[in-house]
C-alpha cells in the first residue's frame, strides 16, 4: 500500500492550476495548500488546537533541527513526531539539506554526504542520504524528503550541474534506504538552479525513479522573481500530472498565487510566522507594520476583511502596544492572523479554481494588495 494517494479533481482551463485531494495517514488535504512551518516540533507561538481552528491540515518539521535537538531517537521513543508535539494531522519533514548549507559552519561535501558542525554547539556531524531517511523514518512524518544539495544563487553552470548530479545520486540512495513506504511517502527534490536544461534533466531522471511526489527546491534563494516564476513554470512541465508538486520555501501571498497558476500544489515558508514576531502582518491591502507609530491610536482591526480571532477581538493600537511593551501575546496574535491569512488565501484560490475564475481572482487580489501599499 502506498502511504499517500493524490488525485486531481479539477484542472483550470486557462492556467496550469489544479485542485486536488491528497490522502495521507493523518488526514485528507485539499490542494493547493499552504503548510505552516514548525521548525522545532512547534509552529512558533501556536498550539495545535489553534492551527486546527484556522484550518491547517498539514505542517512542516525540520529534520536538521530535530536531529540536533532533541534528537530523533528521543522523538521516536515518544512515539513519533505526531505524538511528541500533539499534532494528529499530516506532517512533512524536509531533508535537512537547506539547513546544512545555510545554518551550519565548516561544511565538507563529498560524494558520500556532508560533514557539518552544529549551529548550536559546534559539534561535528555527518549526513548521508541514508542517514537523512533514517532520521525521518524515526520521526514518522507522513511525507519525507530525499537529501539534496541546494545550490546558492548565483552559481556557475558546472557547479550547479555537479550539485544536481549529486542530488540525483542521493535520491537513488535515499529511496533504497527508505523503510516505511507504506506509511511515509518519499518525495524527490528537483534541483538545477536557474538552468533550464539542468532542471529538465533532474526532473526527468527523478520521474524515472517514480517517487510518490516531487518537490522543486533551490528557488527563492536570491534570484529575481520573474526568473523564479519562469523556472517554476518550466519545471512543472516535466513533472507527472498525477503526483503532488511541492515548491519549497516560497510563501508570499503573490508567490502562492503565481505558484498555483504554474501548477504547484504545496507550499511552505517561515515568512508569515517570522514577520509576525517582528510586528509585520499581511492584510488584504498589503503588508502593514503594526508596531509603527501611525497605529498608536488606530482602533480598527489588522485587516477589516479578516475574521480571525485577532481581527475579531483586537485593534491595531492594542497590537502596537503589545509589541512596544514586548508582551508575548503580541507574537501570538500576529502569528495567528498571518497564518490564518495565508490559509484563507489558499481556500479562496481553491474556490476560484472551482469557479473557473482564478485569473480574475489574482487580478482582484493583487490590485487591492498593492493598491494601497503601506510599506
Ligand atoms: Zn486576522
Automatic annotation (TrEMBL):
- Cofactor(s), names only, from the UniProt record: Zn(2+)
Pfam families from the UniProt entry: TGT
A single GO BP term for this record reads: tRNA queuosine(34) biosynthetic process
User: Which InterPro entries does the entry link to?
Assistant: ArchSynthase1/Queuine_TRR (IPR050076), TGT (IPR004803), TGT-like_sf (IPR036511), tRNA_ribo_trans-like (IPR002616)
Instruction: Using the UniProt annotation, give all residue ranges assigned to the region (RNA binding).
Output: 249-255, 273-277
The top EC class is transferase
Give the residues the record marks as binding Zn(2+): 306, 308, 311, 337
Residues forming the tRNA-guanine(15) transglycosylase-like domain are 15-370
Q: Which domain of life is it from?
A: Bacteria
Q: Name one GO cellular component term.
A: cytosol
Ligand binding (substrate): 94-98, 148, 191, 218
Q: What is its EC number?
A: 2.4.2.29
The pathway is:
tRNA modification; tRNA-queuosine biosynthesis
According to its UniProt record, which reaction does this protein catalyse?
A: 7-aminomethyl-7-carbaguanine + guanosine(34) in tRNA = 7-aminomethyl-7-carbaguanosine(34) in tRNA + guanine
- For this UniProt record, give its keywords in alphabetical order, as a comma-separated list: Glycosyltransferase, Metal-binding, Queuosine biosynthesis, Transferase, tRNA processing, Zinc
Instruction: Give the annotated active site.
Output: 94 (proton acceptor), 268 (nucleophile)
Write down how the cofactor binds this protein.
Binds 1 zinc ion per subunit.
GO terms for MF = metal ion binding; tRNA-guanosine(34) queuine transglycosylase activity
Question: So what does this one do?
Answer: Catalyzes the base-exchange of a guanine (G) residue with the queuine precursor 7-aminomethyl-7-deazaguanine (PreQ1) at position 34 (anticodon wobble position) in tRNAs with GU(N) anticodons (tRNA-Asp, -Asn, -His and -Tyr). Catalysis occurs through a double-displacement mechanism. The nucleophile active site attacks the C1' of nucleotide 34 to detach the guanine base from the RNA, forming a covalent enzyme-RNA intermediate. The proton acceptor active site deprotonates the incoming PreQ1, allowing a nucleophilic attack on the C1' of the ribose to form the product.
Q: Tell me, how does this one assemble?
A: Homodimer. Within each dimer, one monomer is responsible for RNA recognition and catalysis, while the other monomer binds to the replacement base PreQ1.
**Family per record:** Belongs to the queuine tRNA-ribosyltransferase family.
In its UniProt entry, what is this protein called? Answer: Queuine tRNA-ribosyltransferase
Species classification: Bacteria, Bacillati, Bacillota, Clostridia, Thermoanaerobacterales
Amino acid at each position: 500500500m502506498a502511504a499517500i494517494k493524490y488525485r486531481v479533481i479539477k484542472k483550470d482551463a486557462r492556467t496550469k492550476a489544479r485542485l486536488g485531494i491528497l490522502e495521507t495517514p493523518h488526514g485528507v488535504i485539499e490542494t493547493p495548500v499552504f503548510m505552516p512551518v514548525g521548525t522545532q516540533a512547534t509552529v512558533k507561538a501556536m498550539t495545535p488546537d489553534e492551527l486546527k481552528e484556522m484550518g491547517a491540515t498539514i505542517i512542516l518539521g525540520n529534520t536538521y533541527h530535530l536531529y540536533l535537538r532533541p534528537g530523533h531517537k528521543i522523538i521516536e521513543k515518544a512515539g513519533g513526531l505526531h505524538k511528541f508535539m500533539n499534532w494528529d494531522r499530516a506532517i512533512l519533514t524536509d531533508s535537512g539539506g537547506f539547513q546544512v548549507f545555510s545554518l551550519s559552519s565548516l561544511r565538507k561535501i563529498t560524494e558520500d554526504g556532508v560533514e557539518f558542525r552544529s549551529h548550536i554547539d559546534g559539534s561535528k556531524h555527518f549526513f548521508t542520504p541514508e542517514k537523512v531517511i533514517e532520521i525521518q523514518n524515526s520521526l514518522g512524518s507522513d511525507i519525507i524528503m530525499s537529501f539534496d544539495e541546494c545550490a546558492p544563487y548565483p552559481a556557475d553552470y558546472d557547479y550547479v550541474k555537479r550539485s544536481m548530479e549529486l542530488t540525483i545520486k542521493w535520491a537513488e540512495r535515499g529511496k533504497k534506504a527508505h523503510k516505511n513506504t507504506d506509511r511515509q511517502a518519499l518525495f524527490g527534490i528537483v534541483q538545477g538552479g536557474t538552468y533550464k536544461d539542468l532542471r529538465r534533466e533532474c526532473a526527468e531522471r527523478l520521474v524515472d525513479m517514480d517517487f510518490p511526489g516531487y518537490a522543486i527546491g533551490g528557488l527563492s534563494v536570491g534570484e529575481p522573481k520573474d526568473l523564479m516564476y519562469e523556472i517554476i513554470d518550466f519545471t512543472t512541465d516535466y513533472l507527472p500530472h498525477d503526483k503532488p508538486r511541492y515548491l519549497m520555501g516560497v510563501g508570499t501571498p503573490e508567490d502562492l498565487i503565481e505558484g498555483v497558476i504554474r501548477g504547484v500544489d504545496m507550499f511552505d515558508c517561515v515568512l508569515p510566522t517570522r514577520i509576525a514576531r517582528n510586528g509585520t502582518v499581511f492584510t488584504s491591502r498589503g503588508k502593514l507594520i503594526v508596531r509603527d507609530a501611525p497605529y498608536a491610536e488606530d482602533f480598527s482591526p489588522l485587516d477589516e476583511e479578516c475574521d480571525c480571532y485577532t481581527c475579531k477581538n483586537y485593534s491595531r493600537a492594542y497590537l502596537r502596544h503589545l509589541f512596544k511593551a514586548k508582551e508575548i501575546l503580541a507574537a501570538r496574535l500576529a502569528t495567528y492572523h498571518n497564518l490564518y491569512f495565508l490559509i484563507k488565501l489558499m481556500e479562496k484560490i481553491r474556490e476560484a479554481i472551482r469557479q473557473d475564475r482564478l485569473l480574475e481572482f489574482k487580478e482582484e487580489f493583487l490590485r487591492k494588495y498593492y493598491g494601497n501599499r503601506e510599506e
